[in-house]
Amino acid sequence: MESASIFNDPDYMMTETEAAELANLSVKTLRNWRLKGGGPTYAKLGSLVRYRRRDLASWVDRNLTQSTSQERC
Q1: Cα separation of 19 and 42, whole Å?
Q2: Nearest residue to 16 (alpha-carbon basis) of 52, 45, 47, 51
Q3: CA 5/CA 14 separation, integer angstroms
Q4: pTM of the model
Q5: Span 12-60, pLDDT tens digits
Q6: 46: exposed, middle or buried (C-beta count within 10 Å: 0-12, 13-18, 19+)?
Q7: Is residue 73 a contact partner of residue 61, using CB atoms and an 8 Å limit?
Q8: What is the distance of C-alpha 53 from the center of its chain?
Q9: Which pLDDT value is given to residue 10?
Q10: What's the Cα-to-Cα distance from 16 to each of 37, 69, 73, rounded to whole Å?
């Protein structure tokens, strides 16, 4: 699969580095969220961690707000 198209496939299983890059986050942040909760859904495949593009996009959508005083769901 071409690298330009991997981010267009909603089922593509991204590495944590790819997911962090797509979400403009650090890998360390994703690791902390996996430990503490609150981050995007991920798959644990043996020792591998993978993020589906659709799950990352869904997580971003759930975290949209219009102001700092807006209550989150």
Answers
A1: 10
A2: 51
A3: 12
A4: 0.78
A5: 899 999 999 989 999 999 999 999 998 999 999 999 999 999 999 999 9
A6: exposed
A7: no
A8: 7
A9: 87
A10: 15, 31, 26
- Residue bearing tokens 């859904």: 41
Q: How far apart are CA 8 and CA 68, in angstroms?
A: 31
Return the residue matching tokens 């807006």: 70
* Cα distance between residue 47 and residue 49, in whole Å: 7
Per-residue CA distances from 15 to 22, 48, 67 (Å)? 11, 8, 31
Q: Which residue has the tokens 């020792």?
A: 47
- Count the neighbouring beta carbons within 10 Å of the beta carbon of residue 72: 7
Q: Which pair of structure tokens corresponds to residue 37?
A: 């909760």
